[in-house]
Amino acid sequence: EIITNINNIIKDLTENSIRQFIQKLAWRERISPEKIQEILAAAFRDSYCRNGNEEAVLHFEFDHDLLVYRCYQIVNRVTNPQKEITKKSKLIKEGEVKNGVLFWPLNTKNFSFAASQEIKKHFLRDLQKIQKEKEHETYSPSLGQLVVGNLQSIERDYYLFDLGKGHGQKLTFLLEKMVEESTGHRIILTRNNELFLRKVLELEIPEIKEGIIVIRDILRFPGFITKIVIESRNPHLNAVGTCLGQDGLRLRSISQIIYPERIEIIKWKLLPEVGRYLGKKIIGQTWQ
Predict the structure, then answer these.
(1) Which residues share a beta bridge with 150?
(2) For tag attachment on the chain, is the N or C end more exposed, with fewer CB atoms within 10 Å?
């Protein structure tokens, strides 16, 4: 699930400590807590380091609250007021000095509403960018392959499936394509594609994947009936019997995956034209 609006972040930040917020967000978005901290720090820097603060050095601590310090090198003579300070500065008493560096705390609670919103927007943008990259890494290797999804809801023009470990009716699909959108990727699944059926057959019948049995034709009315015309390259192998499996086990497994679609296996005749004609004639009669 991708966070799609800034209100989710505001709600989480106001209801939880920063540590709880990071842990909750890391679990929900499946990103490490350290990465969430990096994104949050980068968002803060992008918003703060401008308008005369471009060279400001910031230090972050993630405890119950987010603690942000502006760091100044203590010098005898200041050449860069954005990064340096003298011992006589009034800021020395307001911060803590470590190894010649002043850690001056920024009061983040006094930030203007506009500044706070800007930080949250930067955070949302960077988080979505990371999530989109993670989505692409996760699902792009499965393009053109079978995936299992859990039915979540039925919308007006489409069905929504969860490809994780969610609950709901499980169905097998071909991951057809990924469409990049502003908040992530829309993953298009299909069961109508002929490649879907070929992948199912290869999954359940190794001889097809190995090329020992060749699919000569697929005659299909998606969702209703499919007739597979096959031929064995091994003259001693019964192609139809091999596809059916012992006691029809392989055929039942295929039928369960493509249910409610019925499937029949037809042997390719000696003359290809006859086999093709026979298959189309049979399926034509079925539709009638």
Answers:
(1) 162, 170
(2) C
Spatial separation of the C-alpha atoms in residues 115 and 111, rounded to whole Å: 6
Q: Is 103 left (phi over 0), alpha (psi -120 to 50) or beta?
A: beta
Whole-model pTM: value is 0.64
Query: Mind listing the pLDDT tens digit of every residue in the chain (288 residues)?
Result: 333 334 455 556 555 678 888 888 888 777 888 988 888 888 888 888 888 899 999 999 988 778 899 999 999 999 999 999 999 999 999 999 999 999 999 887 666 556 567 777 777 788 888 888 888 888 999 999 999 998 888 888 888 888 877 777 889 999 999 998 877 788 999 999 899 999 999 999 999 999 999 999 888 888 899 999 999 999 999 999 999 999 999 999 999 999 999 999 988 874 455 455 555 554 444 332
Q: What is the DSSP letter of 12?
A: H
DSSP labels, 157-218: S-EEEE-SS--S-EEEEEEEEEEEETTEEEEEEESSSHHHHHHHHHHH-HHHHTTSEEEEEE
**Alpha helices, H only, the chain:** 6-15, 18-29, 33-48, 113-139, 194-204, 206-209, 239-244, 249-258, 272-287
Question: Do 138 and 118 touch, CB atoms closer than 8 A?
Answer: no
Residue pair 16/61 in contact (Cβ under 8 Å)? The answer is no
Contact 102, 95 (CB under 8 A): yes
User: Mind listing the domains of the chain with CATH numbers?
Assistant: 6-135 (3.30.1480), 143-190 (no CATH), 194-287 (3.30.300.20)
